[in-house]
């Protein structure tokens, strides 16, 4: 990610500056460091006697102004040593480091800034340490470039914390930081990880847009007011994140883990289809390897009653452990996983898995049972995909648990008027009940097996129609062989043609009689045909089974097209 464009060397700063090293041909401005009070040079170019005199004027709570100044690590330590109070920690009043360049390690650990603090357009060439810093006034970090890692762990921002157009080339840590005022992170670019674990945002109404090439970790963070979070990142961790008010999460590219998040009010998580307006221009390059779409990896432990997911990928999402899944809202183009593709052998027969939406938990359980280890989500898997505990069945959710997940999510999709999706989850629920040897009685599993074989749980019209065709063909054959009496008088139509006076007789054969009986039986009507005892029972059986198969086929079609 690019750094903010530096100020042109031919433009002098707005403050009286040192000018050391100015060259009319190359650098007419020279050093941009502001004069040290009472001198005509900046801190970096002050003579030793003048430096000693300046340091002697510093005391705890003093204001300092070193705008545009090149500050080495040892010089910063000299200043902070003079500002230590009775607690042994540096205490500053107003502090202005706009445009300053910090070389070496910049250690501001446990410093207290009691006035307004400004680091606008400052540069930190190496490690920047702000651990435990207290900003009583506003803290302004607009356009700052952090070349190395930056640490703000346990920092306390009592006023507004403004990070606008900031570039973090290394990792940025804000673990357990407290933002009592507004926290403004707009157009911030993280090349490494952005870690906000345990941070507390008391008044932040917007976080982002942030662009992160690594992980944005908000695990354990607390948001106290309604907030909009805009993040484009490779990964977003929301483990045990607490939302004490409403929230709208607009994400790009990220794989999101929501396990254990606490949602006290409605939270919407949506995939943002277009770049954020205030995001850095080169966001696409930074996230080129992140992959398309927003992928949810887990909602385990979440009370889903307040959660809405829009346009996200749930292919690998683990739902086990979540509560109130029947109240989860799933909108937009939300995708689930699919069974393995292609033909497979089951005993001596080749079979294909029925195409439907499946949960990651079913993938993991079937892989553990069969020993399969197919490729990752989104690929043309030829076997079931293993889970994180593969192949251990004791830690992998079993059929009883997965059936309950399907049941709850089916209700959620039905409430969202997504009937085809709900039908797939009904199929998955029945599949898991059929394989559940602990919570489902054997007789019920047998009935489910028959229901599956005959019509795919009432959802596979082709299967029901195939059985219907087979039943009708078998009935026709049975009637032709045993159902129609051999001495049944042939029905004839008799008459005399006026022209020739010849006798006309038309005979209906046994196949036509049998076919008429079958067709009438399919629509639950009696044909009125004279039949043998065997034929009578055959017709009675046909009048029961064939209408049922026809009804199952009709219901299967209806379940697939209803919206």
Could you walk me through the main structural features you see in this protein, from its secondary elements to its overall organization?
This protein is 26% helix and 20% strand. It is α/β, with parallel strands linked by helices and 563 residues long. The chain has a 19-stranded parallel β-sheet that branches. The protein has a nine-stranded parallel β-sheet with strand order 3-7-11-15-19-23-25-27-30, with no helix packed on it. The model is unreliable at 1-8 and 374-380 (pLDDT under 50).
List its traits.
563 residues; alpha/beta; 19-stranded parallel beta sheet; nine-stranded parallel beta sheet; 10 helices; 20% strand; rod-shaped; disordered N terminus
Round the mean pLDDT to the nearest integer and report it. Answer: 84
Main beta sheet: 19 strands, parallel
What is the number of helices?
10
Number of strands: 36
- Outline, from the CA principal axes? rod-shaped
pLDDT < 50 stretches:
1-8, 374-380
Instruction: Specify the helix fraction band.
Output: 25-40%
Q: What Rg do the Cα atoms give?
A: 38 Å
Q: Provide the β-strand percentage band.
A: 15-25%
* N-to-C CA distance: 46 Å
Helix/strand/pairing class, anyone? alpha/beta
């Amino acid at each position: 990610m690019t750094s903010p464009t530096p100020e042109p060397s031919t433009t002098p700063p707005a403050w009286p500056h040192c000018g050391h090293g100015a060259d009319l041909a190359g650098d007419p401005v020279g050093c941009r460091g502001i004069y040290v009070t009472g001198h005509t040079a900046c801190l970096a170019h002050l003579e030793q006697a003048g430096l000693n005199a300046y340091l002697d004027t510093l005391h705890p709570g003093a204001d300092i102004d070193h705008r545009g100044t090149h500050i080495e690590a040892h010089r910063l330590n000299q200043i902070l040593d003079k500002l230590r109070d009775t607690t042994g920690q540096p205490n500053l009043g107003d502090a202005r480091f706009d445009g300053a360049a910090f070389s070496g390690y910049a250690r501001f650990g446990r410093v207290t800034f009691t006035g307004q603090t400004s680091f606008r357009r400052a540069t930190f060439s190496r490690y920047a340490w702000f651990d435990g810093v207290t900003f009583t006034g506003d803290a302004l970090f607009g356009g700052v470039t952090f070349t190395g890692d930056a640490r703000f762990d346990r920092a306390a921002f009592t006023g507004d914390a403004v990070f606008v157009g900031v570039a973090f080339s290394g990792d940025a840590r804000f673990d357990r930081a407290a933002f009592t005022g507004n926290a403004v992170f707009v157009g911030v670019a993280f090349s490494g990880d952005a870690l906000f674990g345990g941070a507390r945002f008391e008044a932040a109404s917007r976080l982002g847009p942030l662009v992160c090439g690594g992980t944005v970790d908000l695990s354990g963070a607390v948001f106290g007011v309604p907030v909009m979070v805009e993040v484009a990142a490779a990964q977003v961790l929301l483990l045990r994140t607490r939302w004490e008010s409403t929230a709208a999460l607009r994400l790009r590219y990220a794989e999101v883990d929501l396990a254990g998040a606490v949602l006290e009010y409605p939270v919407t998580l949506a995939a943002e289809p277009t770049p954020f307006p205030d995001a850095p221009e080169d966001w696409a390059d930074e996230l080129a390897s992140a992959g398309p779409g927003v992928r949810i990896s887990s909602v385990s432990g979440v009370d889903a009653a307040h959660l809405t997911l829009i346009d996200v990928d749930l292919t690998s999402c683990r739902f086990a452990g979540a509560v109130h899944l029947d109240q989860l809202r799933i909108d937009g183009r939300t995708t689930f996983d699919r069974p393995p593709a292609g033909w497979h052998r089951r005993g001596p027969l080749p079979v294909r898995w029925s195409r439907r939406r499946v949960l990651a938990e079913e993938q993991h359980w079937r892989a553990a049972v069969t020993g399969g280890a197919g490729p990752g989500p989104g690929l043309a898997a030829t076997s079931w995909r293993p889970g994180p505990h593969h192949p251990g069945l004791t830690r992998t959710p079993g059929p009883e648990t997965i059936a309950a997940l399907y049941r709850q999510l089916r209700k959620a999709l039905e409430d969202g008027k997504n009937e085809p999706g709900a039908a797939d989850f009904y199929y998955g629920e029945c599949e898991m009940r059929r394989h559940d040897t602990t919570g489902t009685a054997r007789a019920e599993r047998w009935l489910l097996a028959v229901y599956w074989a005959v019509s795919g749980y009432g959802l596979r019209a082709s299967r029901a129609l195939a059985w219907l065709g087979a039943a009708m063909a078998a009935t026709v054959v049975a009637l032709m062989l045993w159902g129609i009496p051999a001495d049944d008088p042939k029905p004839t139509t008799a008459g005399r043609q006026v022209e020739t006076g010849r006798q006309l007789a038309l005979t209906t054969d046994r196949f036509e009689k049998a076919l008429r009986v079958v067709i009438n039986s399919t629509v639950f009507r009696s044909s009125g045909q004279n039949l043998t005892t065997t034929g009578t029972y055959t017709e009675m059986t046909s009048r029961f089974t064939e209408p049922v198969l026809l009804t199952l086929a009709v219901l299967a079609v209806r379940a697939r097209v209803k919206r």
